[in-house]
Each structure stands twice: as C-alpha cells, then as structure tokens.
Amino acid sequence: MTNPKIYDAVLIGGGVMSATLATLLNEFEPDWSIKIIERLDDVAQESSGPWNNAGTGHSALCELNYTPEKDGKIDITKALQINEQFQVSRQMWSTLVTRGELPEPTKFINPVPHMTFVTGEDNVNFLRRRYELLKAQPLFATMEFSDDPAKIFEWAPSLMVGREKDEVVAATYVEQGSDVDFGAMTRFLIQNAIDNGAIVRLGTEVIDLRQRPDGIWQVATQVRSGANKGQKNVTHARFVFVGAGGGALNLLQKSGIDEVKGFGGFPISGQFFRTDNPEVVAKHQAKVYAKAAVGAPPMSVPHMDTRVVDGQKALLFGPYAGFNTKYLKEGSLLDMFKAIRPGNIPTYLGVGATNIDLVGYLVGQLAASDDKKFAEVRAFMPEAKREDWRLITAGQRVQVMKRDADGKPVLQMGTEVVAKADGTIAGLLGASPGASVAPDVMIDLALRCFPEKSAAWEPKIKALVPEYGKKLNDDAELAKLVQNDTAEVLGLAQIP
After folding, report:
1. Member of which family (predicted)?
2. How many structural domains is the chain composed of?
3. In this structure, are residues 7 and 31 in contact, taking their beta carbons and an 8 Å threshold?
4. Angle between helices 476-490 and 77-99 (to 10 degrees)
5. Domain that holds residue 316
6. pTM of the predicted model, to two decimals?
7. Which of 32, 147, 280, 427 could be cross-linked to 170 through a Cys-Cys bond (beta carbons 3.0 to 4.6 Å apart)?
8. In sequence order, which ranges of 162-284 are alpha helices (DSSP H)?
9. pLDDT given for residue 241 in this prediction
10. Within a domain: residue 85?
C-alpha cells in the first residue's frame, strides 16, 4: 500500500480568508502543495459573496462602532488599528495588481466616499468630538465635518431632500473611501492559486479532523454534490487552516484542540433593502453610516451603501438583524446546538444573561413588518419610495462568545485567530471587519503558526506590503505617500 500524499497546507473554506492565505503561502513557499476544500459548488458563496456583505473597505472612516464612548470619553484605539490594517490590504492588493495577479482594479474595488450621518443634538455633539479626535491623526487627516445642511446636501443629496428644515443634523465626509467586491477578489486570488498548482475541491464538506501522533492532520471529507455525491475521503496535511466563516467553530471543536474550549458563537442573520433603479442610485454616491439602535449587535449599525458589482452600481440599506440557529447561510438549524459543549455552556449562559437588551432588539427586528423596516430607509433618504426597493437576505454572521481576561463571558466584536500551540492548525472566528483586513490577519496567522520561518519570510512579506511593520499613523509624510501610491494603482481618490 502506497503512502498517502501529505499536503503542506489544507485550507478549509473557499472565501476571501483562504484565498488570501493561499496567496501568501505561494509567495512565501512556492514549492508547497496546497489544497482548498469548499462545501458549496463555487467559491465566495457565503460571507465573501458581494450581496452577503456591504462591501465597505473597513477603514474606520465612517463606522461609529469602532469609536465607542464610555464615561464621556471617545476611544479611537480600534479605529486607528483597523485603518492601519486596511493600509496593509491596500498595499498588498496594489502589489498584486502591479504584478498582474489581480486584474483591472475596477473589477474588485472602486472609489466611494465614506460618511457618517447623525441627527439630534447629542449625536451631533458626539460626532463633532469624534471628528476632532480623528482629524488630528495622519490616517484621518482628510476627514471633513459639517452641521450645515447645505454642505451635507453637496456630499449626499438624498440625505437632505425632503428633510425637515429645522432638524439638527451633522456628517463627516472622507473622499478617499472605497467599495470592495470581495467575491470577485476571492475568485481572482483562488484562480491564481490554481495557476500556481493548488488543488481546489468544490462541493466537498469536511466532516472530521484528527491529528495523528506524528502531527499530521487527517481531514475527513464527504462529497455533497455531483456524480460522486456521498463519497468519503481523507486528505492528509502538515498544516490546516479553518477559514470556514461561521462554520469554523464547529470544525475547530471537532479537531479537539484545547485552545477552542470555552468559545461559543452567536449567529446573526440579516437582510438589506436593495435598489438597482438608476435614478435612485445616481442620487447617492457614498457609504453612509449612522449610530446603532440601543441593544443592537455591533454589526447591525444602519448604513446606506453604494455598491459596485460586476460594473453595475446599486444601493443597499440595512442591515436588519434577525436570528436563527444556523452558522452559515447554507447551513443547518442544528449548527448552534452542535457547538454547545460542557466547557462553553457557562459562556453561552453568561452572554445571554448580560445581553438582555440584545435579545429585546432581535425580538423587535423579527416582529417588524416590511413597512416598518422601510421607515428606517426613509430616515436616511426621506423621499425613498417603497416600490424602488426589495429585501434581500444577506450572509450569516457569527459573533465570538468567549471569556475575557477577567473570566467574564463577553460577546466580542471583530475576528479572533484560534491556533493550536504547535502551529499545525489555526482557524478564524468572528466577523467584521473581516475581509477588509484579511491580508494583515493572515500574515499574522502565518507568522504565528510558523515562527521559525519569520526571518526567511520577512523580505517576502515586504515584497507584497512594502511598509509592513510600520505604523503609518506615526509618520504623517509616510502615511500620505503610501495612501497616494496605493490610490494611484487601485484607482481611488488621492490625498491632495
């Protein structure tokens, strides 16, 4: 009997994270054998799909949930971190475009200003203070603020037409924002991986993960569709990445690694209103974010987004949060129940007990009629007409539930890398900002799992991300230079 092939890396999930990691590994170790396993019949069909997310190039230019206020003080730490990470993304994407490994940028990224819009004295005061803090930072130096309705009309006419003249409003505006089609990007990057020798298996589900005594992982799979439906197989790998979006928690639990014990996942489903009416779309050329409702999960901040998918512009408004027990859009209602273990029951119970307002918010969202939901569109765009818009179901998001440093159960925003101590398996849990910061997160994951290769990989990282390791926000001249260099390649707005 011949020994089975042992892949250097098996990547579970055909989304932007696996696509990005495959790109990096091809750069770092061109001779490595890579296999990508996707349960659906095509890549980028879950959270990476263009209509399953808002396509915001998350750089904290407009998202208020990255600048929380506590005890009267606004914390901009998260905003600075995310913007730094997004600059890593822009550098890597620019390099790949220059090399011809990504196509004409308009096929996956387009310039769209980022705005924040608020109403009411308290919110206007908050936005002004936030602006003053961020404006002083080099990465946010182009941000503008106005509480003048005429100026806001210049930025986004649809926000102001039909609004009461005495309504107190304010907005910030950053011309250098972007809209990203992460589905298209994923497909391009995975095709590059195939061209470089990677094997991709579609319609194939990972059903179990086991590590042999010699450290090699056995990845058990079952074909879900096609002529070989039901066929089972085992793939062997030296390293496994679990980039299965909402499905990552269940798979990491199957692996039996200690590091995932105590983690849980809270699923949030969502809907958006969408319009493709050219007349409506032409009146709004921005991504505009507002403040979240009391009790809303962080990923449910209301926003009106210009989208560019396959060269066509559209508008999305939402999200409207919902709840079911699936961890994937094309998942099972048993997903959440399968994730419950003795070690994480206290986490689930603790998060539930301390997030009663979230439960109330979700109940309200589930009970809301379509007309009530559309009233929120009108809060942004007063003259919006119901007949121009339709509801679409967005991707499923799973927020991380864990214990913090003090042992307190928390519902965490953002993403978290979970890796076994020996570096042979790692997975990514959580959601936004996710795809926008994939290059930085995947570089960090690779270095964490292969620390012995950091010296050899450093020049290769800098070949992709020239200023990697530098905090651009600490150097105003460098921040402007890098942003303008990447803007020129990617076709985005320059900093004057």
Report:
1. Belongs to the MQO family.
2. 1
3. no
4. 40
5. 264-411
6. 0.94
7. 147
8. 182-195, 248-255, 278-282
9. 98
10. no
Tell me the two tokens of residue 263: 């983690």
Whether the CB-CB separation of 400 and 263 falls below 8 Å is answered with yes
Domain annotation covers residue 287: yes
CA-closest candidate to residue 67, choices 132, 122, 10, 13: 132
Give the span between the Cα atoms of 222 and 34, in whole angstroms: 19
Backbone torsions φ then ψ of 261, nearest 5 degrees: -65, 135
Q: What is the pLDDT of residue 405?
A: 81
CA triple 361-67-130, angle to 5 deg: 120
Q: Are residues 144 and 173 in contact, defined by beta-carbon separation less than 8 angstroms?
A: yes
CA distance 2 to 7: 15
Residue carrying structure tokens 């590059």: 192
DSSP state of 56: B
Number of neighbouring beta carbons within 10 Å of residue 166: 6
Tell me the C-alpha to C-alpha distance, in Å, between residue 463 and each of 30, 96, 160, 337, 459.
14, 10, 46, 44, 6
What pLDDT score does 304 carry? Answer: 94
Residue 257 burial class via C-beta count within 10 angstroms: exposed 0-12, middle 13-18, buried 19 and up: buried
Q: Are 258 and 26 in contact (CB under 8 A)?
A: no
Residue 447 lies in a domain: no
Instruction: Spell out where 224-301 has E strands.
Output: 232-237, 240-242, 264-275, 287-289
Closest CA to 302 of 53, 63, 37, 24: 63
Mean pLDDT of 373-391: 93
Tell me if 439 sits within 8 A of 89, measured CB to CB: yes
User: d(Cα 424, Cα 315) in Å, to the nearest integer?
Assistant: 42
Retrieve residue 455's tokens: 């010296």
